[in-house]
Write a structure and sequence with these properties.
By secondary structure, the protein is mainly α. Among the domains are: 35-205, no CATH class; 400-455, Herpes Virus-1. It has 16 helices and 13 strands. The strands form six sheets. A three-stranded antiparallel beta sheet has the order 5-6-9. A two-stranded antiparallel sheet has the order 1-2. The protein is globular and about 65 Å long.
Length: 458
Amino acid sequence: MIGIPERRSGMSWILGPLVALGLAGCGGSDTSGTAAASSVRQAQPATPSGAGMKDDDPTLADRAARGLEITPVPVDTTGMGARQRLLVGLGSYIVNAASDCAGCHSGPAGFLSGGNAFNLPLGQVVYSRNLTPDPATGLPLSLSEFMEAVRTGRDFHAGAEGELVVMPWTTLRWASDLDLHAIYAYLRAIPPVHNEVPPDAKAALGLPPSTPFPGHLYTDGTVVRLLTASHTSFDARRGLEVSPLSNPVRLRGEALESYGRGSYIANTLMHCNDCHTHPDRTADQSHVNVASFLTGGTVFTAPPPLVPVTHEVRATSANLKGAVHGFFNEPADSFDRFSAIVTTQSLVDEVPPRPLAFPMILVAGNLAHLLDEDLRGVYDYMKRSPSTTGASDADHQPPARACQASTDCLAGETCTSDTHECVGGACSTDLDCGTCQTCGAGACQEPAADSLCVLTSQ
């Protein structure tokens, strides 16, 4: 990213400097955006999954219970009514399983205490906010202000120069009112941490003060759809409405329910597009870049603390939905493989299994906490959503392997003294070399000092 940034938010900016811790079309596609959602309503008219904030909703209760189990800090629910306890538990489930808020907002001061710096183009820098309820340094927003910040990108900090950057509000804005309320309830229930965060410096980016939310319309993809299910949680109908691509029209019953729920998780809470679509948005920032949807290609540099874990210095996000090269279109694809990769944070089909690259190794650790039906929903959405064709459907380089000495590399390779990566392996094309390396004279070469690949890595 040189000059004015290509994107105003997205996981590529979020995770770059982090150091704190196919069935194509399924036989057809929707045209109006209402047929598939109507089918969900007809399939289970009485109690569809995520049917709202009901104390006796077993699915909601299961998510809330899991959320209270996995919260990394104690949450005192003494004196809370059943509804408030459900809300706080659901918020924890979203923050600590379906999303990765701690990846940016946790630091040396504590859980969600903020303060991590994110260096941006033009010498600008922003800091993750303290989200705890500390009265002096924590989240100062009311619920309505929190909702406005998430939905429009408005930065409520005094003297803020433009809308929020790094925070993936362009994705999270499509979550239901209920789920956003739950996140807020959890943030108000966690222990306060006193940690003063420096002010941002982002004036040079020339960002607008905010981006209006389009009310009851989803306008981010190829189909404009009416937004419903605002007062429900993890609702399949909402998922069908916020998918950037057309939805299958031949799915029915439980299959459609799972697909819709998976779309909701993937497209509002997990922010899959932000890492696995490159660039994640169109040049004018108005839409998801559907032409390259989930075909990977974003380069990430691993933060030093994670290098000993991943054994990699640099990696490219995977092609998930390419019709030819997509992960979910591989012959070996199955839910069991996907589930094992998530739960072990490793590529289980390699021998020996290789740890997932940064940043997916962090995201997968949270996704491993999802209820089985929710993880299955994510898989069903990825499997059944339309595959992407065209130039972006390409193979990507494998990760650049880390080393401290040449003995850490394979036979015939050497370890570079500056970037500490293995080079010198035999190659025919750049694809045979690690991310950002080049193939020259039959051997993999370390990236040049002015390598655009390295300079624009996240």
